[in-house]
Known about the structure:
Structural class of chain A: alpha/beta
Oligomer: homodimer
Distance between the termini of chain A: 28 Å
Order of helices and strands of chain A: EEEEHHEHEHEHHHEHHEH
Largest interface: A-B, 23 and 23 residues
Largest sheet of chain A: 6 strands, mixed
Amino acid sequence: MTATEQLELVSANKVHGGWLKRYRHRSGSLDCDMVFAIYLPPQAEQGPVPMLWWLSGLTCTDENFMQKAGAQRKAAELGIALICPDTSPRGVDLPGEDDSYDFGSGAGFYVNATREPWARHYRMYDYVTEELPALVKRHFPVDGERESISGHSMGGHGALICALKNPGRYRSVSAFAPIANPMACPWGEKAFSGYLGDDRTQWAQWDACELVKQAGNSGAARQELFVEQGENDQFLEEQLKPERLEAVCAEQDHPLILRRQPGYDHSYFFMASFIDEHLTYHAKHLL
Amino acid sequence: MTATEQLELVSANKVHGGWLKRYRHRSGSLDCDMVFAIYLPPQAEQGPVPMLWWLSGLTCTDENFMQKAGAQRKAAELGIALICPDTSPRGVDLPGEDDSYDFGSGAGFYVNATREPWARHYRMYDYVTEELPALVKRHFPVDGERESISGHSMGGHGALICALKNPGRYRSVSAFAPIANPMACPWGEKAFSGYLGDDRTQWAQWDACELVKQAGNSGAARQELFVEQGENDQFLEEQLKPERLEAVCAEQDHPLILRRQPGYDHSYFFMASFIDEHLTYHAKHLL
């Protein structure tokens, strides 16, 4: 903790007996000011609670999940903190940053960019796996040894790669409608070519399907992946491609629970419908 | 049902096993096109289900409650339909309609305006108590004899007056942070003088505290009012004034449950925290 580290409280709301708070801070890894949200369940008043990281999808901020998923009810019951980072650096004024919904602002893809001009700021992987966890552990009553991770769409894939790249770090990982194989879909190709350049061999370290192929044989490296997918998801065939993750997990004998839910789409209503089951799943590993 | 009555589906999302649908229709009472939202729980596939009307607050549309309150989970468990009207006529191009957040668009106050130019369109009371219920009963698998009503802030007051003005109509009524005595607060004075003119005797038929005074002695007229109020609500003292409702109910021996919740504010996080208890309360009367 540096002497100058400051957390500025942006808002505070009591929810289900706990507190949802949003803070602004200076991010060193992203070189800009960032806002994140943390929900501390009532149990946090008695002592450290385990953490569930939530990574949101394209166009979102730290707010969408906290407002729309209804997760606080079950989190308060179980005694789990929820933490939502934003989805990209903000206000860094790179050319074209705000031109499209699926690249730049709101679309950081949880990678470390290597291509200019993005490389200086777009390091969301470092931010969500290192800088922000360290900050949260310093400032809040959380148990630094008990973390799980989940997310939606771009953030569902983010959760998968964070877990796959850090065997043993997260107690459990789940994903709602993840972009399962970004190297093979328009959203991922646009993001990876923009942030990482044209060398597709560099992309492989940021793609869940490739990371499953590269995973070692330790128990930690073979961590179960829990994926929820709506069958009426408007992005299912072109962008999400869970069948590719399913195939590579089968081929590699990597544990995967892939649930396909008839009638559900890509919206927060889908997440709201199954978030309790995911929280219960994570609780089994966290509590 | 007129031969020309049309419902245009705006969106449909599966949520907790049921369906949330939004429809556009031509409103005769408001003389404009309106959108409303209805959540039909899974039980509606087997037969008619009871209805809970939800009236939202200032600046809201039919969407806020459905996206942020997390009510569908419990509604699906109980088998209750949720119906959210919009909060005012839309697109009627009256001068000044969009100038402020607390009058005109998004601020219909659930009254029938008598003052020009508002009187032609701003008849939200007729819309939410007559036109829309009749339409919903014609088109959806709901039990027309089993209705309850609730709402938030401006809509919490709306729910109270709909029930008080129609003894026996609603099986139960509840309100979150209602504007309890609009004749005696800035929001209400602005709305009532704008929609109803300067004669305060006319206002009394639209004010919950006044309606409690006017209520008859029948059991139906003495229906219990269930009010939830956050103690950290930023509008509590200047606008909401639940103590006035409490005083008049005590004076009139009108049944009131007023719960004050420490730490909670005026946001949807407050509603999300207690909506399950309100749905359970209404279910006791509806099921």
